[in-house]
Amino acid sequence: MSAENLNFSADVARLLDIVANALYSNRDVFLRELISNSADACDRLRYEALGNDKLIKGDADLRIEIRKDSKERKIYICDNGIGMDHEDLVNNLGTIARSGTGQIMEAVKAQKESGNDKGDLNLIGQFGVGFYASFMVSESVEVVSRKAGSKDTWLWSSDGRTGYTIDKADKAHEDLLIGPRGTTIILNVKNDGSDYLINEKIKQIILTYSDHIDIPIYLGSKDELEEGEEWAPVNTASALWMRPKSEITAEQYNAFFSHLTHSYGVDEPVSTIHWRAEGTLEFTSLLFLPSMRPWDLYDPSRKAGLHLYVKRVFITDKCEELLYPWLRFVQGIVDCQDLPLNISREMLQHNLVLQKIRSAITRRVLKEIDQLARNDNTAFEAFWLQFGAVIKEGLYDAAQHRDEIFKICRFYSTHEDGKLTSLEDYVARMKDGQKSIFYIAGEKAKVLKNSPQIEGFKSRGIEVLFFEDTIDEFWVQNAMGFGDHPFVSVTKGNIDLDAVANPNKEDEELKNDKEKEEDKGADTNVITLIDRMKSILGDEIGDVRTSSRLTSSPVCLVAGDKEADLGLEKMLRIQQNYQGESKRILEINAKHPLIVRMAEIAANDSNGKLEKATHLLLDQARIIQGETVKDPTSFALNMSEFIQGGI
Ligand code: ADP
After folding, report:
1. What domains are there in the chain, each with its CATH number?
2. Measuring CA to CA, which of 247, 313, 484, 636 is 20 to 30 A from 98?
3. Residues near ligand 1 with C-beta < 6 Å?
């Protein structure tokens, strides 16, 4: 059989183009990527062998060996892991199988066109340039591989330009494998990569990037040893999470985080949580809270989860059962003593042990975040702004953790512009006798803070929280309240603000105040105005009434007690294609000069001005609400007429 010539997929070709042409500040990463692949191959073999020990027989000491031939300018990265057959080679080293890669490549291309080389590196870092990094230092690369359980050895080779060839390996190449199965990568080092042919340089890269790998990495081959020399691995080669905390440096933790997330030089964890649970359930866990949002945090096809080990044997890298979706940004590993080693991936689903570990992890992570808030508020707030919206999904999804989540929730509010507040602090500032926590939901605090519906709250010193995230509209429907304080939307129902602001006034006094207010309304024909407005607007509106919410705006819209809140309905319309439409209540500010004037003419409006003004006011209230006007043409005509009259 002669060698097959195959082309790289478009993604690979583009990636290789970037790898070859971008001026990387750090080419050392190629070795880190290849070692990481070899370690994964050993992990996978160990896992497969749990069900079929023939696969590992004959050579159970899994290891990585890095050899070199300085004269021939070759570096060999060898492992006795799972190996690849013909199909694997085509699928793994000719295409990029990972989902979302297309999108990333588009982003990389755009950044490249804008001349941003660092951007390339950051973006690629997020999904790992992987095997293709070898072309940064190599003229050409050969891969010799034999899959565990197979007799055939294959040779893949490429110069990293358009394509690659695959052929059966000859004897000389076969001999480069270090075990009965596994992979040897041969790099034909470029002229400007000579420093990688020096032992010290290789050692330094291993210690910097790969020390945490729990497979031993040897430099050179056993045969090359001098008399009395010991063949010892360069790395520590023990699982980082099993070592005592006191022996692990921050750099080592960070290197492990980068290894898990493929984010070298891009992100650092804001918190590292390393603990051993003992008692009814025994497991060790090493978790990281990242400081940067992964690019696909909201991609529904994104798989999140923790790496699961059972008694230090790798089982899977995406154990979703260990992590609630609303903690999907957490990275790390769990090593469990209480699961059988031969657990299959199917058995992981609905597994009680995993569910218990998940609860423990959730409590621990939330506690850690709470501590971060207490110890380093700046770091916490930066973290919250990245991940808060995701964590709040838990208020909806996991009622059993709601109280712990409430502790760490932060919102902007009317208390202090641009400052986040906790619910606890909100409650501490509540007016004497104020029972409810008031909020307004919508898009951004910057816009919400000018909403007419909160004017009356601001003027009476009653704090209102800004719910900026889509999820807020949902959890707030389910949450009974924070402690015994219910959440109340300021855009809904009839809120008696005077009773909230003056809790010490007797009911009787308040009633008298109200009656006085109503008398004033009667004096200025407000009642007539309201009747006229109701008949003008007819079906368009559920009701018209005076408001204690408004101080400087003439009108606003609110939802009736039993109707969907304003923001919620708008969102359902956009996101769920919801067709329903509740009748809104138009509230008017009886003290506003415009309303006073309209009330004056309400009784004897002969030229229909009141009708036009009423329609304009309703449209204005809709616009403030971010809704569209129902009839833009007559809105514009009415408006021009009024401007003309006034100019
Ligand atoms: P990644 O490792 O991030 O998936 P790579 O481009 O580095 O991406 O590798 C692609 C795939 O090739 C790996 O997922 C793995 O299946 C396979 N592979 C690479 N190196 C080896 C190896 N030494 N042994 C076995 N399989 C390997």
Report:
1. 4-224 (3.30.565.10), 241-402 (3.30.230.80), 411-490 (3.40.50.11260), 504-559+582-647 (1.20.120.790)
2. 313
3. 33, 37-38, 41, 79, 81-84, 92-93, 128, 130-132, 183
